Every structure is written in structure tokens, then in C-alpha cells.
Amino acid sequence: MPKVQYIDVLSQEEYEKLKDLANIEGLSLEDFIRRFSDSSDYQRCLKISGFEEVNIVTTRRFRRISSALFTIIFVLILDASEAQAQVWMASITAKSSDPRLPTPISVEFGINPESTNGFDPGLDVITELPPPPPPPNPYLQVVFMGPGLIVFSTDIRPAGPWKCIVKSNDEFTLSWDISSVPSDVYLVLDPGDDIPIIDMRAITSEKFHAGSYSMIIKEGKYGDLSGNRKITSFDASLVLQYIVGLINLSPEQKIAADVTGDKTVSALDAALILQYTVGLITLLPIKHITTAPIK
User: Fold this and answer.
1) Could you write out the three-class secondary structure of the chain?
2) CA distance 111 to 83
3) How confident is the model at residue 278 (pLDDT cuts 50, 70, 90)?
4) Is residue 117 a contact partner of residue 161, using CB atoms and an 8 Å limit?
5) Which tens digit of pLDDT belongs to each residue from 105-115?
6) What distances in angstroms separate CA 187 from CA 15, 108, 122, one per listed residue?
7) Rg value, the chain, Cα
8) Closest C-alpha to 32, from 61, 5, 52, 58
9) What's the distance, CA 211 to chain centroid?
10) By mean pLDDT, which of 69-73, 208-212, 237-241 is the weakest?
């Protein structure tokens, strides 16, 4: 029989109300957040459709703080099943600002569970990366790095990341087509050299100065902050701890956490992640959220 527990999720974002609840409990805000992140002492009887009833003691203090400030979401703690295998491709195009190089260069990358990180005949396409020509000749090169000295113009893997090498002696623009990427997958481009990562769903192109770049493209599922390719209540607890200042999230984690698509990380994102774990919703991210009045 599965283990059942619940997690309290803020239905309002006001920081002060969370502190009020911590005061009711006689706890510091930090201890209060830790308490409901591991809610073993806040359990009660619950029957989930399709599962046996689990009888657990209800504490009086839970009844006391079970107010309109919280949405109580019950979570079935089970190992998340592996997501259905996805197959997709995307492309990146480099265009030099030098008029002597009018032709853009495009390369492709993607996911196929039947592939490897090496060369896969029929999926990957091997190319070459010659040395740049001597000045003042213009050049623009873009490839994906494979194992050893292999470079690809098409790099298909069972999972990311991809390493994209771009070299140019003039300013250039990278653009990408990710229209075939499933909507529950986010993609980020890390240009390196202390350049902020790019949410590839937020914009479709970016300009770069001349230079040699070793860029990393990462993929992940919205809601999966831990990066373990599963969406669980732990991911929701990370969102909550970030909201109240207990932890920091990396730029990539913030993109993964934004399951409402509103470019912010809020308690609503945590609530939706929890609803996903119990099957109340079947796809993340969710957009055009309408919040019901609190009763």
C-alpha cells in the first residue's frame, strides 16, 4: 500500500501571512518551512480514489492553522514513473554580420531514446571543424562536439546536454527553431564566459560578439527543479523554500519552476507541481490560470 502524506501549499503569496502562521505555531519562519517540507507530524486520515484508506492521527494544531491561507494538497508518495519516451529535433542557425558571409549555417540537435552520445548512423551527421582562415578573411563556424575529436552538424542524443562550438571573427546572430520540441520541455542556452543563460522559449535569437564560444544547451521538464528527470513533491518544496528566502535557485531552476508561464516563481507554481504529482493535472506548464475565490 502506498505511503500517503500531505504538504501545505500557500494559496496566497503574501509573505507576512506565512510569518503569522509561523508565529501561531511558535516557530521561526525557517523552522516552519522545514516543518511542512517534512510533514510527517501533520498527517491525517485520507482516502484516495483507487487506493485503500490510510488511518493516521490528525493533530489539533493542524486544525487550528487549516485556514483560508493554505490550500491543502495531499500527495501520494510514489516513485514517479518514467515519462513516455519523446523524440524531437530542433535547429540552431548562425548568421554573420559580415556581408562577405551572406549564407547562414544551420545545425540540428534532438532527442531519440534509441540514440547514444556517440555517432549513430542514420541519426547523427558528422562534419568537420577546420582551422579558421588567416586574417583578413571572414569566418563563421558552428558544430556540435561529440566524443573525442568527432564533431556533428546533427547531434541526436538520448538526453541533453549538447556542446555547441561557435567561432566567428565578426559579430553574429544565433537563432533557433524549437517548434517541434514538446511543450513540457524547456531549453536553455548557456553561452559561457559569464554571459547569462538564455531561455530559448522566451526569445528566438540573440546577438554575440566576435569570438570563440563553447555553448551548452540543456533540456529539462517544467516542474523538475532537482534535475533527476522526475517531478515530485520535493520539487514543490524547493519552490516554497525559495519564495520565503531559505534557499536560492539557479537561473535554470527558476525557468523549470515557472509552470504558470508568467515569468515569476510563486506559491501557485508549487501548488501546480503538487497537483501534477497526484494526477489532478496532466501537463506542465499551465497557462492562463484563473484562481478561484478562497472560501
Assistant:
1) CCEEEEEEEECCCCHHHHHHHHHHHCCCHHHHHHHHHCCCCCCCCECCCCCCCECCCCCHHHHHHCCCCEEEEEEEECCCCCCCCCCEEEEEEEEECCCCCCCCEEEEEEECCCCCCCCCCCCCEEECCCCCCCCCCCCEEEEEECCCCCEEEEEEECCCCEEEEEEECCCEEEEEECCCCCCCEEEEEECCCCCCCEECCCCCEEEECCEEEEEEEEEEECCCCCCCCCCCHHHHHHHHHHHCCCCCCCHHHHHHHCCCCCCCCCHHHHHHHHHHHCCCCCCCCCCCCCCCCCC
2) 13
3) confident
4) no
5) 999 999 999 99
6) 31, 14, 24
7) 24
8) 61
9) 29
10) 69-73
Check: CB of residue 2 under 8 Å from CB of residue 76. yes
Mean pLDDT calculated for residue range 176-188: 97
Contact 116, 153 (CB under 8 A): no
8 Å CB contact between 224 and 173: no
Q: Give Cβ neighbours of residue 117 (< 8 Å, ≥ 6 apart).
A: 146, 147, 157, 158
Lowest mean pLDDT: which of 9-18, 47-56, 150-159, 239-248?
47-56
Cis geometry, peptide bond prior to residue 293 (ω within 30 degrees of 0): no
Closest CA relative to residue 256, chosen from 239, 279, 271: 239
Q: Going by DSSP bridges, is the β-strand pair 162-168/140-145 parallel, antiparallel, or unpaired? A: antiparallel
Mean pLDDT is highest, among 12-16, 67-71, 158-162, for 158-162
Classify residue 269 as exposed, middle or buried by CB count within 10 Å of its CB (0-12, 13-18, 19+).
Answer: buried
pLDDT mean across residues, the chain? 78
